[in-house]
Amino acid sequence: MDEQELIENPEALLTLVQQAVQQLIAQRPDTTEQEAQLRAVAKAIDQLEKQRVPVPDSLRQTKMTLVDQIDQYAQFNRRLRELGDGLTEVLDMIEEATGKLSSEGKSQNETPPRQRRSKNSNQPVTSQSVLRVYIIQALKELGGHARRSDILEQMREMLKDRLTPRDIETRSSGREIIWENNVAWERNAMVEEGILRGDSKFGYWELAEK
Q: DSSP for 64-130?
């Protein structure tokens, strides 16, 4: 099935994505045994070193082999997280597009459905200008280029003492945290202004060279 066929048949595209994710999860390595072996080997090496007994090279090699095997599991998890970040951005794009379409299609006289009022609805939210400063700071600390989830995690740590009660509530959809959603909007503005690159790998944010 080619690209145009997938565009015209969203259900087929969704099925393809679901099958790919299921296959990835099925290939996920189980390192429980290797982790137990590594703990035992590391303990044995530690005891030999404390007793000032030479550690056999074969034992050290066994430790390195186990570390490599466990690292493959960590790399697999990173790939899954990257896929999850990418799908989250796709969902944000769809929600943004459908939200615009629904608002454009509404009659001016149509009354929007009443949303339950939050107890913090009168509280302020962190301004976009402040979020911009922290986006830049987080990216600089992460080397100027990082996954969306890593940037949000870095910002969460930096902002933990200044996020307002309203910031940490969710939108009416119940899925998006307000400050994180505002960060996504600010990122789009920064791309348009040339502060962030618009051609970065999907799911990644990157400071422009300037």
A: HHHHHHHHHHHHHHHHHHHHHHHHHHHHHHHHHHHHHHHHHHS-TTPPPPPPPPPTTTTS----HHH
- Of 102, 118, 151, the residue at which a domain comes to its end is 102
At a CB cut-off of 8 Å and minimum separation 6, what does 195 contact? Answer: 132, 136, 207, 208
Burial of 65 (0-12, 13-18, 19+ CB in 10 A): middle
**Residue 88: which residues within 8 A CB-CB, separation 6 or more?**
148
Rounded Cα gap, residues 150 and 153, in angstroms = 5
- Could you tell me if residue 167 is inside a domain? yes
- Do 76 and 136 belong to one domain? no
pLDDT tens digits along 2-38: 677 766 777 777 777 777 777 777 777 777 888 889 8
Cα dihedral sign, 103-104-108-110: negative
Beta partners for 6?
none
Residue 10 covered by a domain: no
The owner of tokens 């940037």 is 151
Inter-residue contact 35 to 71 (CB < 8 Å): no
What pTM does this model have? Answer: 0.49
